[in-house]
Amino acid sequence: MNRLPVKKTYKLFIGGAFPRSESGRTYEAEGQNVALGSRKDARDAVRAARSAQPGWGSATAYNRGQVLYRVAEMVEARATEFADLCSGREEVERSIDRIVWYAGWADKLSQVLGGSNPVAGPYFNFTIPEPTGVVAVLAPDEPPLLGIVTRLMPPLVGGNAVVVVASETRPLAAIELAEAIATSDVPGGVVNILTGHRSEIAPHLAAHMDVNAIDLCGAGGYSTELEVSGAENVKRIVRGRADVQSPWEIASFLELKTIWHPIGQ
Amino acid sequence: MTELDRKQDRAPVPKDWTYAPAPESRDVVTLRERYGHFIGGEWIEPTETYETIAPRDEETLATVGQATAEDVDRAVAAARGAFSNGWSDLPGSERAKYLFRIARILQERAREFAVLESLNGGKPIKESRDVDLPLAAAHFFYYAGWADKLEYAFPNRQPRPVGVAGQIIPWNFPLLMLSWKIAPALACGNTVVLKPAETTPLTALLFCDVVRQAELPPGVVNIVTGDGRTGAAIVEHPDVDKIAFTGSTEVGKAIQRRLAGTGKKLTLELGGKAANIVFDDSALDQAVEGIVNGIYFNQGHVCCAGSRLFAQESIYEPLVEKLKRRLETLRVGDPLDKNTDVGAINSKMQLDKIVELVEAGKAEGAEIYQPPCNLPEKGYWFAPTVFTNVAQSYRIAQEEIFGPVLSVLTFRTPEEAVEKANNTPYGLSAGVWTEKGSRILWMAQRMRAGVVWANTFNRFDPTSPFGGYKESGFGREGGRHGLEPYLSFDE
Fold first, then answer.
1. In chain A, what percentage of residues exceed pLDDT 90?
2. Residues B463, A118: C-beta atoms closer than 8 Å
3. pLDDT digits over B120-150, tens only?
4. What residue in A sits closest to B448 (Cα-Cα)?
5. Which listed residue (B303, B400, B477, B484) is catalytic?
6. What is the pLDDT of residue B78?
7. Across all residues in chain A, what is the average pLDDT?
8. Where are the beta strands (DSSP E) in chain A?
9. What is the CATH number of the domain that holds B365?
10. Is B5 a residue whose pLDDT tops 80?
11. What is the average pLDDT across B16-40?
12. CA angle, B108 then B109 then B113, to 5°
């Protein structure tokens, strides 16, 4: 007797939970019904991200590095499933390696990007990188898994909380990634993944006053209007590429804080 | 209270502080009657002009150009020509030598520049002489040294100049802001079109003579003067590769919108409403000096000014008392007098804005204190002002006043101080006063601000990155980080 398989419901990932869209809508992508995220879902995701960010941003760098390494472990464990949702095994392996690579940056960033400044006076002066806060990421369509990993990891390892709008046409790898993240000790709300029409969700994130930065990698033809709305709260605009690996990618989502203190007896 | 404290508290403030005038001589500055735009190493006769004045007595100092879009186009073309015809290919070590020359000439002509800065801008000569000029020269000296070391600044990246940089600067530190803009831009191999603020063009125009003396190739530095229309023409020019703007948040947002979709590099250094937080264990007299320096330095025309004082409740009264006594000793008056602590307000427009916000503070219910001082009749003046009984929601606690006006608020716990300090769309700077080391670091970590001064305030240095969080802008000026806005990378 052939057993009928249990099929998955593809949902959003907000605040560590997997809700359906509050709008009750779905759309079909890659042969599956996928949640069609709404403006309200985007707002909920930003709120979840904002609540989760201080804890994630103030976790020790060692801890953040280990948690992100755990994400790589979880993706590796699901490697076969992921391979079916992207271009194949090689893309999965590159994605895992990229997660590990970025995880290792957590406790090295401030040494490479910060430093002490030899001011001409009796002051101790140093500069440290800090997360900018809540980051919206428009993931690219291609490559489906490596693309979202490439854009998600830099803001994440820097201590930001992230709201990702998954590829509209290839969302399944993103949802699978959400499931890997949910089992990886990443605190709920630090990563939120929305599926749906980019043109519907992205403008709300770009205009949202509690989003500090937006990565327009997957914005396509909408990027100009998104940049215009982003100016309302002086958002950091990042025009990310879908396949790149560099500590300077992390730096795009960091602020630099410089602290002075007098030296004296 | 120690015996010493009691004595100090009882010591009466002298009835009046009389100082013999100690005017700095104006003779060191020779102004022309009329200035054009400095484009391609030559003075270009302007088609439109306006008069620039001394805010201390409204004396007309010179006629300067109001650059049109055509003038800006010429300046950009000159900058592009200089960029393509040698400057960007010049070995960094040679570019460095030009910048070292500029630094040296500024040091040599420091007095002339300081006097002109105080004359045209209204700031006390003490400040332009001891702060603006030394820092401006230091900036050129610092970035000169980077010009041939750029490949060491960014590991594993190949830096290239961006091209033509359009730079728009404010009136509060005219020559210093020019240095913050031009020094890193040139060190990285770019050429520039810079517009000084409408009310303070003269030190930028005098700087053109430094450019001449340094024998900088024509077109590497171009200066056009004018108001916001000139700035808009620079922002909108298609052949400008990078915009650097220091000024109001409102204009900064407009520039960010205007550049949307162009892919041009942008750095913004915008407004602020800094919290200066004083804990009950701080050295109060030092804190008072820091508070005064934080808000009355340069008449409060400072984007990172400590305009919101947060006093821990247990020391609120003695702190305000000490602060008021200290205010009585501030000398407000002629910017060119070496005794002067607080000079003239930069312009009529700015004075009107300060007056409007101060009136709003009074109307909303805050209590105003101004020390007795005789303000000159001519010119633009505003007495150092402290508001107490201020609620977080008052306009004077929310909006950037950009004048010598301090709002005093209170807090009980460190958590409350953090919450209140960060409760603003701005995030440029913050101050913390406490003798407890661990608390300094705890507070510094939690301030959402680009610069945190602990047990000090309003310190600047070319090696120290400066710039904001949130709506105070993005990008850093100063230090290694200050190079990045002027470089692109082959990757």
1. 97
2. yes
3. 999 999 999 999 999 999 999 999 999 999 9
4. A257
5. B303
6. 98
7. 97
8. 26-29, 32-35, 115-116, 123-131, 134-138, 161-165, 191-194, 213-215, 236-238, 254-262
9. 3.40.309.10
10. no
11. 91
12. 145
Cβ atoms of residues A215 and A205 within 8 Å? no
Q: Which helix (H) or strand (E) element contains residue B327?
A: helix B316-328
Question: β-strand B164-168 against B242-246: which pairing, if any?
Answer: parallel
Give the tens place of pLDDT for each residue, B205-239: 999 999 999 999 999 999 999 999 999 999 999 99
The reply to whether omega before B376 is within 30° of 0 (cis) is no
Longest Cα–Cα distance of chain B, Å, equals 72
Q: Residue A223's closest chain B neighbor by CA?
A: B261
CA–CA distance, A114 with A265 (Å, rounded to integer) = 27
Backbone φ and ψ for A231, nearest 5 degrees, come out as: -65, -20
Domains, in order of start, for chain A? 26-262 (3.40.605.10)
Could you read off the pLDDT of B321-335 as tens digits, one per residue?
999 999 999 999 999
Between B156 and B74, the higher pLDDT residue: B74
Within-domain flag for B150: yes
Residue of A109, A234, A248 to mutate for B, most B C-beta atoms under 10 A? A234
Distance of CA B304 to the CA centre of its chain: 8
Residue from the list A120, A123, A231 with its beta carbon closest to the beta carbon of B260: A231
Task: Write the residue in B154, B471, B476 that is nearest to A256 by C-beta.
Answer: B476
pLDDT tens digit string along B247-261? 999 999 999 999 999
Please identify which of the residues B198, B269, B471, B484 carries the catalytic annotation.
Answer: B269
Query: Are B405 and B368 contacting, i.e. CB atoms less than 8 angstroms apart?
Result: no
Which chain A residues are within 8 Å of B472, Cβ to Cβ? 234
Residues B318 and B329 in one domain: yes
Inside any domain, residue B19: no
The tokens for B304 are 């990172």
Option in B259, B456, B471 nearest A233 (CB): B471
Which H or E run contains B65?
Answer: strand B59-65
**Interface touch A117/B454, C-beta < 8 Å:** no
Any catalytic annotation for residue B304? Answer: no
What is the mean predicted confidence (pLDDT) over B370-377? 91
| Best CA proximity match to B397, nearest among B282, B251, B231, B276 | B276
Asked if residue B338 and residue B392 are part of one domain, the reply reads yes
B425 chain-A contacts, CB cut-off 8 A: 233
Q: Is B303 a catalytic residue?
A: yes
Taking the CA of residue B437 and the nearest CA in chain A, the distance in Å comes to 10
User: How many domains would you assign to chain B?
Assistant: 2
If residue B431 lies in a helix (H) or strand (E), which one and from where to where? strand B429-433
Confidence (pLDDT) at B104? 98
Helix%, strand%, coil% for chain A, nearest 5: 45, 20, 35
Judgement on whether residues B50 and B176 belong to the same structural domain of the protein: yes
CA distance B469 to chain A (A): 7
**How distant is the Cα of B87 from the closest Cα of chain A, in angstroms?**
27
Give the chain B residue whose CA is nearest to the CA of A245. B491
Write out the residue range of the structural domain in which residue B390 sits.
Answer: 272-454
Task: Work out the average pLDDT over B35-43.
Answer: 98
Q: Give yes or no: residues B242 and B95 share one domain.
A: yes
Of the candidates A120, A223, A255, which has its C-beta nearest B469's C-beta?
A255
Average pLDDT score over chain B: 96
Distance between A124 CA and the closest CA of chain B, angstroms = 10
Say whether both B276 and B383 belong to one domain.
yes
